[in-house]
Amino acid sequence: MSTSPSDTLDDGSHEAPAEAGFFARMLTSVGQPIVELYGIGKGIMEMFFLTFYYLIRGRKRWSAIFEQMHEIGNRSVVFIAFTLGFLGMILIYQASFQAMKITGDLQLLGALFMQLLWREFAPTITALMLATRVGTGMAAQLGSMVVTEQVDALKMCAAQPVEYLVVPRFIASVVMTVVLTLFAVLVSYLAGAVTANVMFNVNYLTFFNFSFVSWFDLIIGLVKALAYGTAIPVISCYAGFAVHGGSAGVGRATTQAVVYASLAVVVLDFLISGVGFIYLIFLA
Amino acid sequence: MAQLKTVIESPLSAIGDRFLQWSAEVGGMVVLIGQIFVRLNPFKLDGPETWRNMYRIGVKSFPIILVTALLTGAIMVIQSGTYIQQYGAYGLLGWGAGYSVLREVGPILIGLMFSGRVGANNTAELGTMKVTDQIDALRALAIDPLGYLVVPRFYAMILMMFLLVVVGDFTALLGGAVTSQYMLGVDMELFAWSIVTYIKLEDLFHGLFKSIAFGFAIAVISCHFGMSTSGGAVGVGRAVNASVVGSAIAIFVIDFIFTYTFL
Description:
The structure holds 2 protein chains of 2 kinds.
Chain A: H1 4-13, H2 17-57, H3 62-72, H4 77-102, H5 109-147, H6 150-156, H7 161-200, H8 204-207, H9 215-241, H10 246-283
Helix pairs in contact in A: 2-7, 2-9, 3-7, 4-5, 4-7, 5-7, 5-9, 5-10, 7-9, 9-10
Chain B: H1 2-9, H2 11-38, H3 47-87, H4 93-131, H5 134-140, H6 145-184, H7 188-198, H8 201-227, H9 232-262
Helix pairs in contact in B: 1-2, 2-8, 3-4, 3-6, 4-6, 4-7, 4-8, 4-9, 6-8, 8-9
């Protein structure tokens, strides 16, 4: 981006900058983010459909998919176990403290915790963690490839960058998000069980009560995990491919990847929870 | 795959290696905290730089935090709504959503967004300066890079995280009130009454204290990883990754410690 042509253009269009003042600036400050957001949304949707096209039409390279699965799944296990384990301990501690104060009865603690974990916390917090760890990783990797012109080299070899780079990450991420969500439920629940036993003397047999979890909860949790697993790689790869301008550009892309991926997770969470709630209350 | 091989071949050396890496990072952070506190003694803060950072950190992340907080409040109301509907205890909806938002979910989610938006940005910026030798250039000009770059960011981050959680808490309650009115059909007034009646001031302060600790942790971690970046554009990406992962772990651990100590 050279500045000199735009400067000359600006001189032509802004006849009276002093009069344009407040109102024009207000309109700009409202309109500019909208235009920017529209561009980003369009880019992400394009990336999504392109990925989908090559997912169906393209050749699958299993070695690359397994490599990405190792990168996304195995290397996040410790991180997920750590964060979700602490989350389980925190939630159980707060919940049992309140329950002790109000009813003094912790019989249903484990059952309710399992239900909430499936519906909300395990998929969403896992996805937020993956958005930070995997999202930055993907954006940084693809961004450095763009900066060092490796993506252009791929295009020169008549290899589609989306098919070659994004599709394996997409498949690996969808599979591994579901697997890690299951793992997160397990870790959180065990951490919660130990906390409840040590701090509040809840028997393990009382805690391991799955009677509240219905098919609906399982399906909602899996749908959420699938949706997050789809959104995270597409958004991060979009941010990675949009890099320009050396190491500063790579840094900016990683930031964008985390922010947009986390926002996407929260928005999808709201949408899916809302649809599930409406189904549960009005249709079932 | 190379890493997997070493784990299988010599597990002890792999564990020790990982342990030494972690120790080096934690030690670096402790040294950074020490260096920041040493600069308290003749208290000198670069005013314009702090002001500029406060604008970039606080004002620029305002929209993202608002959206996150609105949706968080809405989600919490939806999740507690199923139980409330089951038992017909509509008066407890504001308590259920408000308590979880103010104490746990609000600070955690806003902290995670803050670490993604601000912490990652900060690491990327400092890392880029490091790999392009700008920090050495500052040193060559006899400007203290820590005093000029890190200390203003440190204070700006703690202050802005606190203020953003204050705003975010109220936005989340607003989002919850709107959701309860239009999705559950629970009147906004009842929701507000429930919050005012059942939620104590200490619930709010519990979350706000947490937010200060989160801001401190994110500031130290992101500055540490930014200042110890090496290896070009790839190194900047790696530093940002390490920074957000470290911040997320720190947020959950600090949250647990706070909950355990102050409940």
